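tool=predict chain=A
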Amino acid sequence: MKKIKLKPAELNRHKSIHSNCGVFGIYNNPDASILTYYGLHALQHRGQEAAGIVTSEYDEKNDKYKFNIHKDHGLVLSVFSDDKILTNVLKGNSAIGHTRYSTTGSGDKRNNIQPFKVNFKGGNLALSHNGNLTNTKYLREKLQNEGTLFQTSTDSELILHLIAKSKESKLEDKLLEAFSQVIGAFSICILTDDKLFAIRDPYGVRPLAFGKLNDSFVFASETCAFDIINAEYIRDVMPGEMIVIDRESIKTGSEKSYIIGTAEKYKHCIFEYIYFSRPDSSVFEEKVDKVRRKIGKNLAIESPAPGKDTPEDKKTVVINVPDSSNTATLGYFNEIVKTNKDARHEIGLIRSHYVGRTFIQPGQDKRKMKVKTKFNTVKGVLENRKVVIVDDSIVRGTTSKLLVELIQKAEPKEVHLKISSPPVISPCYYGMDFPTANELIANQNDQNTEEIGKHLGVTSLAYLSKEKLMESVPYKHEKTDYCTACFTKNYPISIEGLDDMNKNEFDD
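tool=predict ok
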């Protein structure tokens, strides 16, 4: 492959860490659009920037299929606020949907909102993608040299062009040829006139689950999207697998499966267990709640809560940062009370549920404002006590610093911050949008935990070690392993321009 230099800004356009996207697909259901709407609602936490649905409808009068689409900026509830969109516009028995945070491509351009819909010589085709391709520049230049015109600035559009340009006659072979050319992280649903495809990259970086609802087949980024529509989880789409659902699948009750590629080891994103996925979901064939509790338990083993200094002292309180650290905090507290009877679990922070997750809001100033409007303290719980805060991660440190300032106003005796992941020291190029390396608080303080704690204003700061984190996650298969690049700088999938970026990342 031709090496193409990529500027650091092109590798890391955004200034905040963000969640990735959510995908959903359903085949053979008269309420396809409505069920997709509910599925996207369950996946809202994976992206709050935009949402969309495409349906495949058979036009009996003209004896052909047509694709219907509706997408826009905003939350799922607002994009589909008019019920008639689902009943009168998005007709058809099959659908795919997408809820988005932009990792490549400008977030404010409507053209970049998924699903993407095209018409080519093979018929209609629509695509929803979670993840990032890492040979985007190479593919875009190659396709441009062949005369391709692009409608968006996203990496996902490249896949559509590769499919359309394939000389293979069978649709399945077109897709196999297209995916043999892409590198990176991708969990994808593709809808055609009469088929539904689910494809996962050979490393299995992002999750993708497969389920059934009576005679319908369903795919989703997380199983919580199955629960809301009462679908049954069957299994995960395996890394490197392409599942095809068609009319024959309805007759036989089973799917067709193809291999698009293999990897020596799977490299599941470990941040899915730490933060991204909902605790009521199963991802990578394990319940998130179970893993997150174990992460909290191991954090307690490594960094116990302080006890009383004198018999007159009040009990130490352990609090969570709602909602992302709720489950890890339970695991932490359940472990420490085995040996420390001077601790109690309390609700010390109250969250307003009418404000979106600050973690995935574009722009630093918006984050500061949203932290102030999102949380309030329960002073009676915190005042004159040693307070242990359990949180999932520290990235730039802005949110953590503001939270500590809020808690300090409640006049606690001490504030101890426990983080259920190691220090974040490097950006992600596989579907999460991180700040550049020199913007990460761990790097700004030479990865010195004591200095980071001083900057945040806490009595003490402790991170979960990489070793204990790896002990906490499940290993379901011989090939199971995890991507920990954000903690280690060890990138398992090749990335264009990474060497140039590493040379320049601290030169700003």
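The chain has 20 helices and 24 strands. Residues 20-263 form a domain with the Glutamine Phosphoribosylpyrophosphate, subunit 1, domain 1 fold (CATH 3.60.20.10).
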